[in-house]
Every structure is written in C-alpha cells, then in structure tokens.
C-alpha cells in the first residue's frame, strides 16, 4: 500500500479492501462490492488498483482504477491507445467506480496517481464542469426498461401497432426455440466463443473477459440459453439486485441472427424474465440503444470526465468534439399510453 499527501491510500490486491467498503453509497453497489471486485481481479486481464481515504476512523472515499485500451477509428481503420479509467473494471461497464458520487472532484485528484496518458472518470449521471484540467463529455447513453405489466402478453399488447408488429415478427422467428435457465457452471466453450465473436465484430482493442468470469460468477445470477434442434443460438446473463435486474452480457450466433432474430429475442427473453419474476426495472446497459428503445426501454444520459497527461493532447480534447457521443434520438412513443 502507498499513501499520498492527501491521505488517499492506493493498493493493488483486492484482499486488502478495508471494512466498510460495501456500506458506502455506491451508484451500482453490486458491481462495486468486494466479492465482485475480487472476481473481476481474477478474470479480467487488465491492470487494476484501488484507493480509499479514511475520515474520523471511517471510509470517506473509495474506488477502483483500471488500465485498458481506448478504441479509435479513422475511416475503416481501428486502433487503440492505453487509457486509465476510474470505474468498475469491467468491459462495457457504465457504472461509476467511486463513492460517494458527490466526491467527483476528489476522485479527479486521485487520478494524479493513475497511469499516464488518457484518463477517464466514467459513469457520471450529471454533467460535471469546472474541474481544472478535465473536460466533461457526453458518453454512450444507457437504457432502462421499467416494468409495469403482470405478464409478457400484456406488455406486447400495450405497444403501438408499428412496434408491436416488429416484436410479433421477431417472436414468430423464435417459435420452436428451446430456452433454459442455467447457472455459470453450465457456461461452455461454445458460449464463450459467441462472446468472443461479438467482441471481434465490434473491433474492440481491449482484452476480453476470461471464460472464468462467466463460469464462476460469485453472486446470484441466471443465464437464459437458447437453442434450436442441435444449434446453440445464444445466451444472456442476468444479475438481480433487489428490485432491479441487470442484463450484463449476452452472446449469440452471428450467422443465425437474421434467421431467428436472436439478439432481439434475447432482449425480449430478458424482458419476459423481468416481468414474470416481479422485478421493477431491467437495466439493459449501453450499445444498441435504439433497438432497446424500440422495445420500450427508456434512455438515460451518461457523462465522462476525460483528460490526457500530455498538455498538448489535453488541449485537443478540450477544444474538439472528440469523446462526445453524438447520437440524439427523438422520444419514442412505444406504448399506447403512459
């Protein structure tokens, strides 16, 4: 462990996480929990370290840092640059990785002891301006599905005709598909291959999660797996947290997606599961936001603070639209009322 002049302690082994960590006001308590961070330390092959500060004998600030690769695209070419992130050390994670959230300025100061180069503080729900040296950028939106139906049929019937027609068309392709609920111990090499295929298709430059992340998930979880005859179509990973259900990851057979609408139907299966099991909200994450919105998901803004330790590059970040998520969608009236 090391300590800076402000009393912030940095350490690399999650076994050293201090007492009281889980009791802080985390934005995403499940993913910032000690048990989940230790799991990520074992299964995510990126540099990770943690920090905390005590005040009057109690934790006053805590969080996670990790080192990954930031993708850049220039026309058809895709390349990556190292980036340090204050966030949950998880691929495509949209959750803030520090608590309490009001201490965003202190968390920015913590990044002085992160790795050099690009630096990001992720998962902010509100725009944060005025922190010296940092730029606030609009990031990928997240999509939540608010559950207000007693059964899946009621959900489909409540949709306006254009949206219902699309859903019914996808469900028709799903006829005859076998679905089962399993745990991580049933996650096999073919399931993982689907995850890696999607990863490669996205041309992500970072390191993918290891298969043990999926096989040995240490918190309550369910996989919805789908197959047709002898074909493995795909799966989605659901993690409950109180009245909220997280759709964390999914994988599917890309070559069969058009025939079965696998991706959309896996989203619909997660919605069905949330409705039938009495959850109040399904958190559908980032990416493919328009597809999720057309199923009734509600978008929410997300922001990041970003800087570069090279002053020249940092000026480029400040003066340009780089890192801004530029897509804006008009409100969708998916349902007949409400």
Keywords:
14-stranded mixed sheet; alpha+beta; 338 residues; globular
Q: Number of helical segments?
A: 10
Q: What is the subunit organization of this protein? A: single chain
Rounded mean pLDDT is: 93
Q: Work out the strand percent.
A: 25-35%
Spatial gap, N to C terminus: 53 Å
**Shape annotation:** globular
The chain-level structural class is alpha+beta
Q: Report the radius of gyration as a whole number of Å.
A: 21 Å
Give the tally of β-strands: 14
What percent of residues adopt helix (DSSP H or I)?
25-40%
Which consecutive residue ranges, at least 5 long each, have pLDDT under 50? none
Main pleated sheet: 14 strands, mixed
Order of helix and strand elements from N to C terminus? EEHEEEEHEEHHEHHEEEHHEHEH
Verbal overview:
The longest helix has 15 residues, at 262-276. It is built from ten helices and 14 strands. Strand 11 (231-241) and strand 12 form a beta hairpin. The chain has helices at 34-43, 104-110, 152-157, 161-173, 189-201, 211-215, 257-260, 262-276, 289-294, 311-319; strands at residues 2-3, 9-11, 47-55, 58-74, 77-86, 98-99, 118-124, 135-146, 178-182, 222-228, 231-241, 244-252, 281-283, 298-308. With 338 residues, it is an alpha+beta fold. The model has no long low-confidence stretch (mean pLDDT 93). The N and C termini lie far apart (53 Å).
């Amino acid at each position: 462990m090391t300590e800076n002049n402000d009393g912030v302690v940095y350490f690399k082994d999650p076994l050293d996480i201090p007492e009281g960590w889980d009791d802080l006001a985390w934005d995403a308590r499940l993913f910032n929990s000690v048990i989940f961070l230790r799991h990520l330390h074992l299964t995510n092959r990126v540099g990770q370290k943690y920090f905390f500060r005590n005040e009057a004998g109690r934790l006053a600030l805590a969080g996670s840092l990790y080192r990954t690769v930031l993708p850049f695209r220039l026309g058809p070419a895709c390349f990556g640059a190292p980036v340090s992130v204050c966030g949950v050390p998880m691929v495509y994670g949209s959750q803030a990785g520090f608590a309490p959230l009001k201490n965003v300025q202190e968390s920015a100061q913590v990044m002085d002891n992160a790795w050099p180069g690009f630096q990001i503080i992720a998962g902010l729900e509100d725009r944060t301006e005025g922190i010296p040296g940092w730029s606030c950028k609009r990031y990928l939106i997240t999509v939540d599905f608010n559950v207000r139906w007693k059964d899946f049929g009621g959900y489909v019937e409540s949709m306006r005709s254009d949206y219902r027609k699309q859903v019914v068309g996808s469900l028709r392709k799903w006829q005859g598909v076998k679905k089962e609920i399993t745990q991580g111990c049933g996650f096999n090499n073919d399931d993982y291959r689907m995850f890696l295929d999607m990863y490669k298709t996205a041309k992500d430059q970072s390191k993918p999660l290891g298969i043990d992340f999926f096989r040995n998930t240490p918190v309550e979880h369910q996989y919805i797996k789908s197959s047709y005859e002898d074909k493995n179509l795909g799966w989605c990973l659901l993690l409950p947290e109180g009245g909220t259900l997280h759709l964390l990851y999914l994988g599917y057979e890309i070559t069969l997606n058009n025939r079965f609408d696998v991706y959309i139907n896996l989203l619909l299966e997660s919605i069905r599961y949330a409705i039938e099991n009495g959850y109040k909200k399904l958190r559908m994450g980032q990416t493919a936001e328009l597809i999720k919105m057309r199923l009734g998901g509600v978008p929410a803004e997300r922001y990041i603070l970003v800087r570069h330790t090279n002053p020249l590059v940092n000026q480029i970040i400040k003066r340009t639209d780089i890192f801004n998520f530029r897509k804006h969608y008009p409100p969708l009236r998916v349902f007949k009322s409400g």
